[in-house]
Write a structure and sequence with these properties.
globular; 14 strands; Nitrilase/N-carbamoyl-D-aminoacid amidohydrolase; single chain; 6-stranded mixed β-sheet; 7 helices; alpha/beta
């Protein structure tokens, strides 16, 4: 299975519509890939909080239409990153979209863990409530977004639901890039799954982005890593390696769940 992660340069000098057209063209070019992955909130920028409300779209809005057509034109599975979604009641969500090679919506995931510590996204966006997996011919994807990476229980839930490839779109800041790499490898090792983590390049809302999109195998080996600038990271994966790893080193079978809490003293 060939995966292409498109690490988009997101900056304040480019309009949302111009970037949408540019990214659509990049997706259309990935005809040799089976799966294409885009970053989080690449239309607005993950830290451009003032744009969330003004640029929010209905689920089936302009970005949805452009990405559905691009997936169909390229004949690829497309994790189209996420958009600021406005639902019919007016609430905002950070919503990831996954399309099939025919351009049909295969899944929508509303980000569960919102970043900001009672500011920014944590206040402006609603929280998702459902884990999302997508069955591809070669593997089952588990879908997560950016700050979710810090919460291992979410990924355990995805694995319990059958995920073999964990796909994460992000707008991760440069100042915490070491955490990005460390946590991507940790999620791969502890879940014995591939991790495909696609971030943004550039600077938006005054926040330099980490870039360094990364692909990690079930043993924690980094198969490919981007640099700091806009880049398309393409890697060939062997989906059978997940089952082989879990059979060779069956740590997941030793999980102990439902343990009693410690006694009160």
């Amino acid at each position: 299975m060939r995966a292409s992660l498109i690490q988009i340069d997101v900056n304040d000098d480019e309009s949302v519509e111009s970037r949408r057209q540019r990214v659509t063209a990049l997706v259309r070019e990935q005809t040799d890939a089976d799966l294409v992955v885009l970053p989080e909130l690449w239309t607005t920028g993950a830290f451009a909080y003032e744009r969330f409300a003004t640029e929010a779209e209905p689920l089936e809005g302009s970005t949805y239409e452009a990405m559905a057509k691009a997936a169909s034109d390229a004949g690829v599975w497309l994790h189209a990153g996420s958009i600021p979604e406005r639902d019919p009641e007016g609430s905002l969500y950070n919503t990831a979209l996954v399309f099939s090679p025919s351009g049909e919506l295969a899944a929508a995931y509303r980000k569960i863990h919102r970043f900001g510590f009672d500011q920014g996204e944590a206040v402006l966006m609603g929280a998702g409530r459902e884990l999302v997996t997508v069955r591809l011919p070669e593997t089952t994807l588990g879908v997560a977004t950016c700050y979710d990476l810090r919460f291992p229980e979410l990924f355990r839930g995805l694995v319990d639901a059958g995920a073999e490839t964990l796909v994460l779109s992000a707008g991760w800041p440069e100042r915490r890039r070491a955490h990005w790499t460390l946590l991507a490898q940790a999620r791969a090792v502890e879940n014995q799954a591939f991790v495909l983590a696609c971030g943004t390049a550039g600077t938006h809302a005054g926040v330099p982005q980490a870039g360094h999109s990364i692909v990690v195998d079930p043993w924690g080996e980094v198969l490919a890593e981007a640099g700091a600038d806009e880049e398309i990271l393409t890697v060939d994966l062997d989906p059978a390696k997940v089952a082989a790893t879990r059979e060779q080193f069956p740590a997941l079978k030793d999980r102990l769940l439902g343990l009693d809490p410690p006694p009160h003293r």
